[in-house]
Amino acid sequence: MSDADPMARLNTVFAGQKAAFEAERHRPITERKSDLKKLEAMVKARADDFAKAIDADFGRRSKAETAVAEAGFVIATAKHARKHLDLWAAAKRKPVPPTMAPGKAYVRREPKGVAGIVSPWNYAMQLALAPLAAALAAGCRVMIKPSEFTPNTAELLRESLSKLYAEDHVAVIEGGPDMAKAFCSLPFDHLFYTGSTPVGRMVAQAAAANLTPVTLELGGKSPAVIASDFSLDEAAKTIAWGKFFNAGQTCVAPDYALAPKGGQQAFAQAVLREADAMWPDVAGNGDYTAIISEKHHARLTALVDQARAAGAQVMQAEFDAAKAGNTRVFPPTVVVDPPLDSALMREEIFGPVLPVLGHDGLKDAARFVNERDRPLALYVYSKSKQTARKFLASTLSGGAAVNVPMLHLSVEDLPFGGVGASGQGAYHGETGFLTFTHERAVFEAPVWHPSRLIFPPYGKMFEFFKKLQAG
């Protein structure tokens, strides 16, 4: 099918993958390991090509950030899956109650079928290929719809993956919003979406029409909460890194910070000092990433301007706009005490802007967090593990970390996902394998099973069984 008719190709590829799955419902484990090994090798061989493509899409993307958060992450993910696949895929024995004996109970872990992956622009390589690795480990066929905001990366994904896998195994579908809508309307056996909460709601509605199970990796306003026993200067070191890495275009970046009341100004100044130490001369610093588009840059500008007009104090790193040229650089920015009804405090920021507010103790901070949508991540800073764990127990988020942001998502065996408005479902490690796996319950009985003794007409054996069952 010619690429000149992309909608027709979409349906043709889907039909081809459905047919291929029916022809090979249980891809051998050895083949799945080979699929993962090929993915690892491709990413290693073409890491520089991906870095250039991503840099072109952003206008400027830190090569170091791409190396660790894109290529390195995918390689580690695929390698981990390959190492543990035998254990993950093995049938799991389950105990049989006395009332059901004799017999054997177990769970078969079987591939769901054809999976759809809708990946975003902020980590265009990682968030396409890490779910792909999980789906390949599970034995699925996969179609990927990359973001239209990263066309160079999308094209490289299509070109590189087409050399590794047949189109009826893995296929990349390029296109804009109309294509994304059509993609999500296909009757996939599982649909995996990463992106914003508003679009996630539309994806869920499209999937619901086909009763397609869906994983939604969304976002939200992830707080960083600093206890009174923790140094503001020390907290600023890692919060600045987490916030301004990839210029804040990270779903688990600290969205806002809650510092002990009276310390907002000192903390804001400390954050900017750390940002300046990590990314001096942000206008011309190639390790400081640009904003993905003019539209996104204009939105960030409007958020800050609105907060400033409402009386909030806006602090920014030194920035030479002339040196930045047309690279859409937005300098590290801290906004002290923005109004709670401002867009800055209502919307996920997704950029290098950190609101800082005060709290009257961790109980007050927990109340503040709990009054809002469940965040994708939560970070608490305390010298006391007991204090940190007590705070975690009083809140709810998709994931969490103590005394550092973001690193929980790099622990392969920790499930990564949201809760409530920040998402549903999870992946990474075995959890990712299970996302694309159907756990099929099986009970095997012998040719003659005692259950026949309680068939109608009901008599003494039935009464005996009833008492035995109820204990």
Short synopsis of the structure:
This protein has two domains: 6-218 and 423-439, Aldehyde Dehydrogenase, Chain A, domain 1 (3-Layer(aba) Sandwich), CATH 3.40.605.10; 223-416, Aldehyde Dehydrogenase, Chain A, domain 2. It is 45% helix and 16% strand.
Global mean pLDDT: 96
- Which structural class should the secondary elements be placed in? alpha/beta
Q: In what order do the strands lie side by side in the largest sheet?
A: 10-11-12-9-8-13-14
**Global Rg:** 25 Å
End-to-end separation: 64 Å
What is the number of beta strands? 16
What does this protein look like?
With about 475 residues, the protein is an alpha/beta fold. The chain has two domains: about 5-220 and about 425-440, Aldehyde Dehydrogenase, Chain A, domain 1; about 225-415, 3-Layer(aba) Sandwich (Aldehyde Dehydrogenase, Chain A, domain 2). Helix content is about 45%, strand content about 15%. The chain has 17 helices and 16 strands. The strands form three sheets. It has a seven-stranded mixed β-sheet with strand order 10-11-12-9-8-13-14, with helices on both faces. Strands 5-4-3-6-7-15 form a six-stranded mixed β-sheet, with helices on both faces. A three-stranded antiparallel β-sheet has the order 1-2-16. The radius of gyration is 25 Å and the shape is globular. Pfam families: Aldedh. GO terms for molecular function: aldehyde dehydrogenase (NAD+) activity. InterPro entries: Ald_DH/histidinol_DH (IPR016161), Ald_DH_C (IPR016163), Ald_DH_CS_CYS (IPR016160), Ald_DH_CS_GLU (IPR029510), Ald_DH_N (IPR016162), Aldehyde_DH_dom (IPR015590), Aldehyde_DH_NAD(P) (IPR012394).
